[in-house]
Here is the input.
Amino acid sequence: MIRIEPREKISNSSTVLIPIIAAVVSLLFAAIPLLAAGANPFVAYVEMAKGVFGSVFAISEMLTRATPLIYTGLAAAIAFRAKLWNIGAEGQLYLGAIAAVTVGSGFFDLPAVLLLPLIIVLGGCAGAAGMAAPTYLKVRFGADEVVTTLLLNFIIIIFLQMLLEGPLQDPMGLGWPQSAPILDQGMFPPLIDRMRIHSGLILAVLLAVIAHFMIKYSVWGFKLRAVGENSAAAKHAGININRSLFGVALLSGGLAGLAGVSEVAGLKGYLTADLSPGFGYAGIVVAMLAGLSPLGVLIASVFIASVFVGADSMSRAMGISSFLADLVVSVSLLCVLVGGFISKFKIVRAGTGKRFK
Amino acid sequence: MEASTVLRLKGLTKRFGPILANDDITIELQKGEVLALLGENGAGKTTLMNMLFGHYLPDSGNIEIKRTDDNLVPLELGDPSAALAAGIGMVHQHFTLAENITAFENITLGAESLFSLRRNQKKAQTKIKSIMSHSGLDAPLDIPVGKLSVGERQRVEILKALYRDAHILVLDEPTAVLTPQEADSLFSNLRRMTNQGLSVIFITHKMREVLSFSDRLVVLRDGKNVGSMKTSDASEKKIARLMVGSETQKVSSKRIKPGGPILSLNEISVAGQSKRDSLHEVNLILNSNEILGIAGISGNGQNVLADLISGLVAPDRGSIVLKGVAIENISPFNMIKSGFGRIPEDRHRQGIVGGLSVSENMIIERLDDPQIQNFGFLRSSVINKNAKTLSEKYDVRGPGIDQASRLLSGGNIQKLILARVFEKQPEIILANQPTRGLDMGAASEVQKHLIEARDRGGGVILISEDLDEILGLADRIVVMRDGKLHDAISNSREDIGLMMAGDST
Amino acid sequence: MIDILNILLTDSFWAASLRIATPLIFGVLGALICERSGTLNLGIEGIFVVGAMCGWMATWLGAGLWGGIIVAFICGAFFGLIHAVLTVPLGLSQHVSGLGITLFATSVSYFTYRTALPDVASPPRIEPFQPLDIPVLSDLPFVGLVLFQQTALTWLALLMVVLVWYVLNRTNLGLAIKAVGDNPNSVDAQGLSVYAIRMWAIVIGSALMALGGAFLTMSAFDAFFFGMVNGRGWVCIALVIFASWRPGKALIGALLFGAFDALQVRLQTEMGAFVPGQVFLMAPYVLSIVALVIAARSADYPRALLTPWFKGQR
Here is the structure.
């Protein structure tokens, strides 16, 4: 018979090692579907690596893909820290994007110094509103935010389709369901000539660093951690739980909204209903791999982006379905969960007290 | 009748990591006897019983039990179902009852195959009825356990064990939740059953019960069996010396003259979801230089009262008046601001944030204090210095002030809370079950702090279900029952016990 | 208003309601079993996809319709087992594990489908379950169409409601499931295995969810599409709260949802000229949130839901 006992001390190295091991294991796991699809895994891995690190262009593409993941990863990390289960980053991303194209595609003809900040602020606000609503339902009525945010994702995407066939449709778009383009001065400046990498990345990194300091050193961050770790004790100690939750909700939703802003105003230029291939959901994986640490999000989003970009290029070269990337990403999430277990608990043979390996 | 051994624990040893919880313990139980197992918190009583019941597997030693024939046979260890089959029944301190199903269903759960297509209710009903009439235990069988009183639930627990044909019954702190009268009736029922051949082990730290109800007693200290004797040969002093290793003095409070009123609750009503969390027109006056003891069986509204004074619930009617001024906007934050110090009942759940460090937990109630923060950012050097000073002053021991506070032991967590509360020299202190689960040393430490606070001029509201603690500390006693407060007619155990139960019983 | 009343009086409307409700009945029952034992299963959305893909694929490969149903059942059980291992003995976050299962199950299904059928312009079709044709009964007015011309899977779903109700309320197994979701120690103290009961509940619950998915590809449609589950799993999680964890109410909740969905489709065709179609498409999801908000305040959650239990720690 075996038993599970908590470890007395959680080693510091494990918080870094576990995500790394989880990432490696999930990549190794990819060999199984590759073999099943009749491909040589080694060749596939080489193709993936080439697709991510083979050239400056490849690296820039990977970082471009990582940019929205940083925003959505931060959105999930901050919310999960406070045990607010925001699974609605996908929808909030689209709300941010809707706000961006609404104000950015000619509604206001402002110079760049004004228009881009306006787009960013309004996009963030739209995303924040998208998370404030389910938080209100949670606080006021006790409606589980997991379900409401998940369902809102579907509602928002249908709403978007309605807008793209209605008020937001580009009159010059030949009837396609897409919005008018954002004015040039409303776009994030590119970072490198003739590449798609844009300054939305700089903003994302900056926000991650700010979030790190806020959580660690500010009173606001202290409250967020206290509420997330033990809301009953935090409440007893005089912390206003609802206010903290709303603060977290607005920030988390706002960050997810910025992911949408960054994608339309940094990359695509206009809005379609397939803007995000699941960045909101991938953000959850990023946050978990990052151990809910904002700085960790930077590294984790690079890993997840590499998997997506690598799998895409491998897919083109070898004809393997790029759903392989989603497979690796989901396996890495399950691995990091199990890794977290191993770091916190040990399995002992009941009675003998010996470690069970 | 010749006594015969029904159970023998032989050389049981159990380690948890570096801690030796049970060290070579040998105990014998005779047929028809009531054996009291005594010891301080952490002495290893519960570990020992959990090994007996198969929840833990001992590192060494064995257990022998008498079956139908006259020989003792070894019990298969580490398997609750083997213990059940061998006729051992255990009544845990925290009841193991599912509240969403009836008492009848709880009793019969697991007694029949899970995969039979129907439940055989008739036979079970007859058996339970017969057990009830033999033992004198009575409880409503057909309503969900969630609606039963604590005493009823305990009887269901015992019925559950007897239904499984237990001939050895283990009770863990059985009277913690009962009135003195209920406890007496429990023990008289147990006596009736031991006369019919049942053997009983009960775990307790209340000496009164041991001396009046047991036949024999065993004292554990630091995981060892340090003494076993016939109850007729024992005295309170003798047992206490065995339990703590040396004679300790009970904290007793010298009465001093109370000052004027500082806090009054006027006609306060709170409509909770159930009777357990409602208050009905509660009036209470607390004076300075006074410890006000609130006695009562738990679940009679004490927790709502505590939540009210902590600011967690607002009254539906009535007012809280502090030194002549009614408190508006009742919230935890405002209560702390107004000078309330609160020691919560459940220190792990409400007292500390386990994931935050010791030093962070020490300032969690003063986040808006400019000494602690600058423009919304924490001043970590001040916070660390504060934690170091307080840790020394209140003797909080643990792996370090920068480590997660959940790593502290229960006693040290309580000291952390004391440090946080008393350092602000609050005028009013609410202490809800402040010594529950603490060993004697830590408990007397807590009690000393409460007395000090009173002598300094504060008012203390002490809620405790340990009547001895209230009788020892309180200057004035009120009894809580069914969400109402009643002034104690006298300070005698008998009178207060009757008031706790309601005069009808 | 007259329009709606006319719609409500047609037998085809009620037949469609029951048809739309069928996958939800499976899903809600599955979620109900998991949650009654104390575990939230957010893997439901992905398990729907697995059921839809595997059931269809097995049938397409020649296993027959009922062979496909069995395959879907087993595949659902398999993913349920992963969730069970992660959340019960390992006691990991039920939220994160569930989302992980959804992502994993979905990507396995999509990858498998794409790898098996790399370049198809239009998805291959199977011969799906046909409406039952019961002599006399099927020809009855109104109820004939509503009840007796449904496919066998709809009947299976209704049968499951009765079966789950019977097990929960009339058997010892049901007692144990309810008890373990309220206070695991009560089950442990009686010598039953908390782990076994919880894990089996999750495995069986997940297998039922997969049948809901299989209904989509093997009865409602005849092929597999990406994104076809479209939030139905999440709706089930909302409905199970609305149903306060009771099989009978779960059936009512699913039927209400089905009726509402059938109604919006009909209104869409009638009023499409004035109101954008998306307004109607959104309605079922909005309704789910509304139902959740109404039910949440009085919801009587299983007390041990989301709380892991470890043997020997009390």
Summary: The mean pLDDT of chain B is 88.
